[in-house]
Amino acid sequence: MITYKDSAPPKINEINLSRIAKELKVHRDQLIIVLGGGAHGHQAAHSHGFADSNSPKDLLLKGIPPIRHNMSTLASSVETSLNKEGIPAIVIPPFSFVTLKNGLIHDFPTNIIRKSLDNGLVVISHGDICFDEERTASILSGDTITVYLAKELNARTVLIGTDVDGVLDDNPKFTPSAKYIPIINQDNKETVLSKTGPSTSTDVTGGMLKKVSELLEISKHNREIIIFNLTVPDRLKVLLQNESTICTRIQL
């Protein structure tokens, strides 16, 4: 979407980023934007052993500066693009205040995020490297942040932008005829999870399977959860205007 995920070194897709910033201008309510790592996060994380639970402490620690640099660069570009469109956005990086334990959230205070939203600011956060009480450091994914904040801040709507039309019934990289699943509910959720595999790109946080699994956790609390193709112009804008388009809706 806003990065070229297979590009090394990481590169921002400025055209897509500018378009998305323009589409966000139609939104008039409180807004948190959570960025996935893309190439900026996943490449550095993978090369420093974060995909392997047995990686040595020294290797993990060496990964903190490049991961932090890459994610700060990405987030700053998004912040600049949004502010250029008149959207008062600020970046709040998880590294500075979130701690993990065995890869799970240990402490994630939300007071600064709440104050920022209450004062009319759009908050940008992102997948990040965080200190871990047991593992020295671990990756906190954008998807996990999204689920946590949706719970803590009682979000009414969660929009997940991907590079496909939603959750598909097969891997489109191997099966071009794969079709999106319009609705995931109690009747089909187990079937969907059995067919949904990990991303084929370098991704240390689990890909689509983990994404859907985590979103299912928060779908029971009267929230609107939508997974859609952010690479298609105007789909985000249409959804922000509460109109229908091609997407997957999770309704449990």
Q: Which helices and strands, and how do they pair?
A:
Blueprint: H1 14-24, E1 32-35, H2 38-47, H3 57-84, E2 89-91, E3 99-101, E4 104-107, H4 111-118, E5 122-126, E6 128-132, E7 136-140, H5 142-152, E8 157-162, E9 183-184, H6 189-195, H7 207-218, E10 224-229, H8 235-240, E11 248-250
Parallel strand pairs: 1-5, 2-5, 8-10, 9-11
Antiparallel strand pairs: 3-4, 6-7, 10-11
Describe the overall structure.
35% of the residues are buried. This protein has 8 helices and 11 strands. The strands form 4 sheets. Strands 8-10-11-9 form a 4-stranded mixed sheet. Strands 1-5-2 form a 3-stranded parallel sheet, with helices on both faces. Mean pLDDT is 90; it is low at 198-205. The protein has a single domain (14-250), classed as Carbamate kinase (3-Layer(aba) Sandwich). The chain has helices at 14-24, 38-47, 57-84, 111-118, 142-152, 189-195, 207-218, 235-240, and strands spanning 32-35, 89-91, 99-101, 104-107, 122-126, 128-132, 136-140, 157-162, 183-184, 224-229, 248-250. The protein is an alpha/beta fold and 252 residues long. The longest helix has 28 residues, at 57-84. β3 and β4 form a beta hairpin.
